[in-house]
Design brief:
alpha/beta
């Protein structure tokens, strides 16, 4: 067992709340919140967001791989679909379970070294990151799995450092494996934690023990099946690489992705940093009730190391496009470390103000999600029934294959679950044997783009197909004046 001189899990604070009371209140708060979010999604209803729609197209049973995303989310969604059907409830339940797990597991992990009060205040700081409080609830799926596996890995790693027990290192290996099949950028987390731990003497001793070797072994076993599938199906597994807009030749000294990298970091950190500054000003004259320096340093160093590695990667690979949520594995350790350092200094009044701020922010999220559902042009507000009826009026053969993007295809599958619909991913229809195909596109105008979809998905008959006249239908938004044109092209191979 590793002896950490700064171990403060059992050190009492001056607060009158007991550990049990804080723990119960914390879990009651996050459980109530995510149950309310689940209820709100069901009440608001409407069409599916793009990532939700993707799940209806990319969960055809349990497989080693499904496409450009790693399979863990799809596996869990498949299980929930088998229990609750392909329903909005099943989609929203998984998303909120994962977000609940993100906070719960981080709290459990931090309890290895800090009191319940500090662990709760620190775990709740994740809610200040916009992509977690807002985007993870509004739209994303696989990123939610990323968050849950990051928290699981942090929890197992901290307890392994604390106790040195083989079971905790084994749990860390399991968490690594699950994270490794959750989302590709997950791997930044173990890299950051390990490198940061090597720079801290007592953490380094535990990390370099023989027992820790079980972690990479278990992780390798967990990821083996999906990674072998990726190796055998690179066309599908790498079909989203284009999102990063990688340059093949040097165009400038500073690639376009570099300023986007800094903007993404700033967008994720600005609110947590602002709240932290206000809390520090309010509590700057108070001494910390417990010593959290070394776990705070661990996370802050991990974040700094990953920030440098991330910048170097973007620069050297000449990445041209970055989405802020890709940077979550860099930002999470920074926020955790910052609030680990800050939380023990907070007075009762400052802590109460912090919690009230979080509650007000939660109310704004609920209001914002409601507005986002009904605003003009909202994805959830589009009516897909006219498109389904238009296709039915075309009187196509029953075995016609429909190819569309995730948003259109998934929403069609939601209201017509018996139709054969494939997403327009590369090589995604190479095993289809039907000789009839219906291509759908939101791309404006006419041209050769539509017919190229058949080749893009590698439909076996794409080179010997006769296309009819292209059709277009305009879909209405239920609460606004905007419309969405959808193009349709039917072809058959003789």
């Amino acid at each position: 067992m590793t002896d950490f001189s700064s171990d403060s899990a059992s050190i009492p604070t001056s607060d009158t709340w007991t550990t049990q009371q804080v723990t119960r209140l914390f879990f009651l708060a996050i459980t109530t919140y995510f149950l309310a979010q689940l209820a709100l999604r069901l009440i608001l209803g409407g069409a599916l967001e793009t990532d939700e729609a993707e799940m209806l197209l990319m969960t055809p049973g349990l497989r080693w791989g499904y496409g450009p995303q790693l399979p863990l989310y799809n596996w869990l969604q498949t299980v929930l679909f088998s229990v609750f059907g392909e329903t909005l409830f099943a989609l929203s339940l998984l998303k909120n379970l994962l977000l609940w797990s993100t906070y719960a597991l981080l709290f459990v992990g931090l309890r290895a070294f800090v009191p319940a009060r500090v662990a709760a205040l620190t775990a709740l700081s994740l809610f200040l990151i916009p992509d977690i409080a807002w985007e993870a609830e509004r739209a994303t799926t696989h990123s939610n799995m990323l968050l849950a596996t990051i928290s699981a890995s942090i929890a197992a790693f901290l307890w392994a450092l604390k106790t040195g027990h083989l079971r905790h290192w084994a749990l860390f290996g399991l968490a690594l494996g699950l994270g490794g099949i959750a989302k590709y950028n997950f791997w930044a987390i173990p890299v950051g934690l390990v490198l940061a731990s090597l720079s801290i003497e007592h953490a380094r001793r535990s990390l370099l023990s023989k027992r820790a070797l079980i972690a990479p072994v278990i992780a390798a076993i967990v990821v083996a099946g999906p990674y072998v599938w990726m190796f055998k199906n690179p066309d599908l597994a790498l079909s989203s690489v284009g999102k990063m807009d990688l340059s093949e030749a040097a165009h400038s000294l500073i690639p376009e992705g570099v300023p986007l990298y800094f903007q993404g970091i700033a967008a994720l950190l600005i609110l947590p940093a602002l709240v932290a500054v206000i809390l520090w000003i309010a509590s700057r004259k108070r001494s910390a009730s417990v010593d959290t320096r070394w776990p705070a340093i661990l996370f802050l160093r991990a974040g700094a190391i990953l920030a440098v590695i991330g910048l170097a990667t973007v620069w050297l690979a000449e990445v041209g496009h970055i989405t802020p949520r890709w940077l979550l594995p860099i930002v999470l350790p920074v926020v955790i470390g910052l609030f680990l350092r800050l939380s023990p200094r907070l007075s009762r009044r400052a802590a109460l103000g912090y919690l009230i701020t979080l509650c007000l922010f939660a109310v704004l999220v609920f209001v914002g999600l409601t507005f986002d559902r009904y605003k003009d042009g909202a994805r959830r507000d589009l009516d897909f029934e006219p498109l389904a009826q238009f296709i039915e009026e075309m009187n196509l053969p029953e075995d016609t294959l429909i190819v569309a993007d995730f948003y259109i295809g998934g929403n069609l599958a939601h209201i017509r679950p018996d139709w054969s619909i494939r997403p327009d991913l590369p090589a995604n229809a190479k095993s289809e044997q039907t000789k009839q195909i219906l291509l759908l596109s939101r791309t404006a105008g006419k041209g050769s783009h539509m017919s190229k979809l058949a080749s893009q998905v590698r439909w076996p008959f794409a080179d010997h197909v006769d296309y009819g006249e292209e059709h277009q239908i305009t879909l209405p938004f239920l609460h606004g004046e905007r419309t969405l044109p959808v193009r349709l092209l039917y072809g058959t191979s003789q």
